[in-house]
C-alpha cells in the first residue's frame, strides 16, 4: 500500500515538475517579449524627447530674434529723438545767428553814419583853418608848412575832442579810436595774427570734416556692396520659388490633361526625394533584408521635417540679412551724427570767439548782460553736447555688443544645424531599429501560432495553470498615430508642402490581373491613398501563402480587415488561454490634426488677398490719374498746334507785305520767331511727357495683370486648401470611428477570453477535486482493509 502511495506521489511530483518547467519557459518568453516592448517604448520616448528639444530650441531662437528686434526699435527711437534734438539746436542756432546778424547790422550802420559825420566835420574844420590862416598871415607860411601845421593841429584837436567825448557817459565809443603812428603797427600785427589763427582753425575743422565725409562715403560704399549681395541672394530665392511654382503648375496641367487623380508620389518624384516605399527605382535596387527593412518606413514625416528645416533656415537667413541692413543703416546714421556734432562744435567755437570779441568791444552793463545770456546758452549747448557725446559712446558700445550678439547667434545657428542633422540621423537609425523590432515581433507571433493551436486542444487537462496577465500590444494604427504626434509642432509653411495638391482617395479599385502592374501600383498608405493592404502592415507569410494571389480591396473594406487581423492577433497569441489586460486606447491622448495649421494658412491667404485688392485699387486710381493727365496733355498739344498754325499763317501774310513794312516789323518778326521756337520746344517737351506717361501706363497695366494673376492663383490655392481640409476632416473622422470600433472589439474579445478562461479553470478544478476525492476514498478503503487484516 505504501509503495502505491509513493508511486502516486512520484507521478504527481513529476507532473508538477513538467508543469513548472513549462511555466518557466513561458515566463522566459514573456520576459523577452517585455524587454523588446520596453526597448520599443524607450525608442518612442527618445524620439518624442528629441522633437520636443528641437521645438524648444526653435522657440528660444524666435525669442532671441524678438529681443533683437525690440532693441533695434529702441535704438531707432533714440536716434529719432537725437535727430529731433539736433534739429531743435539748429533752429535755435539759426534764430540766435539771425538775432546777432541783425544787431551787428544795426551797429555797423551806426558806425558808418558816425564815420561819415566825422569826415564831414574834419573837412569843414580844414576849410575854416585855411581861411583863418590866409586871413591872419598871408605871406609867412609856404604851402607845405601850411598843410603840416593844419594836420598837426587837426590831430591834436581831434584827440582832445575825442578824450572829452569818451569822458561823457551818454555817448558810447562805437568807432575804434584814432591811434598814433607809433602804436598802430603792433596792434595791426596782433589783429592779423588773430585772423590767421581763426583761419587756421577753420581750415583744420574743414579738413576734419572732409576726412569724416570720406569715411562716410566708404561706409556707404560698403553698405551698397552688401545690399548688392543681398539683392543677388533674393534673386536666387525668387528664382527657386518661381521654379517650384512652375513645377506645381505643370503638375496641375498634367492632372487636368489626364483623367487619373493626382497623387502625392508625383510631386515627390519631381523633387527627387521620394520615400523608399513609393520610389520604384529604389525598390528595384534594394534586395534581401534591406527591402524588407525599408518597406514600412514612414517617409512623410521625414520629408515634412526636412522642408520645414529648409524654410526655417531661409527665414533665418532673411532675418539675418535684415538685421545686417539695419546695422549698416545705424552705422551711417552714427557717422552723420558725428559730422553734425563736429559742425555744432565748430559753430559753438565761432560763437565763443564772437562773444569774446563783443566782450572786448562792449564794456557797458547791457553788453555784460547779453554776454551772460550768451554764456548761459553756451553752457547749455556744452551740456547738450556732453550728453550727445555720452549717447554717441553708448550707441557705439551697443553697436559693438550687437555685433558680438550677431556672431554668437551665427554660432548658435550653426550649432543648431549640426544638432538637427544629428537628430535626423538618429531618427533614421531609430526607425530602422523599430522596423527590425516589428519584424521580430511578427516572427514571434507566427512561431507561436502552432503552439497556441496545440495548447488549445489540451485545455481540459487536470493540471492547474497560473493566470498571468499581460499587456496587450498596440495596433499598427495606434503606433502610426503615436508617431504622428511628434509632428504637431511643424510650421504652417511646412504643412503647405505636405498638404497642397493632395487629392481625396478613390472610391474603388478594380482587381488587377497583371502582377507586374500590381507591383508597380503597390504604394505605402501614407504617400498615396491607393492602398492594396490595410493600414496595419505585416510581413508576407510562408511560401504557401505567398504563392496565393492577393485580392485588392477598396478603402471601405480596410476596417473589416483590421478587425480580422486584430482578432487573429488576440486569438493566436502565445498562450492564448491566459487572461490579458485590456489595453489603454491611444485615443486618451489627443489625435494630432493639422486643421488648425490649415486654418491659419487660409487666414494668411485671405489677408494676402485683401492686400492684393488694396494694391489693385491703388493701381486703378493711379491709372485713372495718369489717363486724366494724358487727356490734359493731349488738349494742350492740340492748343499749341493750333497756335503754331496761326503763327505760321501770320508769318506768311507778313512776308507778302512790302519791304518797308517788313523792315519796320523786323523786331516783331524776330519776336514771333522766338515765340515759334518756344512753342516748338514746348511741343517737344509735351510729346516727351506723353511718351513717358504711356510707358508708365504700360508698366501699370503689366503690374495690374500680374496682380490679377496672383489673385487668381491665391483663390485657386484657397479653394484647394479648403478641399484638402474637408478631405482631412473626413479621414480623421474615419480614423476616430475605426479606433472606437477597435476599442469595442478589443474590450469584447478580452471579456470573452476572461469568461472562457474562468469556465475552463472551474472545469479543471472540479475534475481535479473529484479525482482527489476518488483517490482519497480509495486510500481510505485500502487503509481500512489493512487494519482489518
Describe the structure.
This protein is mainly alpha-helical and 789 residues long. Among the domains are: 185-262; 599-657 and 665-788, Helix Hairpins (Orthogonal Bundle), CATH 1.10.287. The protein is built from 16 helices and two strands. The protein has a two-stranded parallel sheet with strand order 1-2.
Brief summary of the model shown:
The protein is mainly α. Helices cover 81% and strands 1% of the residues. It has 16 helices and two strands.
SSE arrangement:
Elements: H1 2-136, H2 143-167, H3 184-257, H4 264-270, H5 280-285, H6 289-293, H7 299-361, H8 365-457, E1 470-471, H9 476-485, H10 492-499, H11 515-521, H12 543-547, H13 558-571, E2 580-581, H14 595-656, H15 659-664, H16 666-788
Parallel strand pairs: 1-2
Can you tag this structure with a few keywords?
789 residues, mainly alpha, two-stranded parallel sheet, 1% strand, elongated
Quaternary state of this entry equals single chain
The CATH architecture of the domain at 599-657 and 665-788 can be given as Orthogonal Bundle
Overall mean pLDDT stands at 65
Helix count, per DSSP? 16
Distance between the termini: 13 Å
Radius of gyration: 52 Å
Q: How large a portion of the residues is in β-strands, by DSSP E?
A: under 5%
SSE run? HHHHHHHHEHHHHHEHHH
How much helicity do the residues have?
over 70%
Q: Low-confidence parts, pLDDT < 50 over ≥5 residues?
A: 138-185, 260-298, 459-477, 484-592
- Strand order of the biggest β-sheet: 1-2
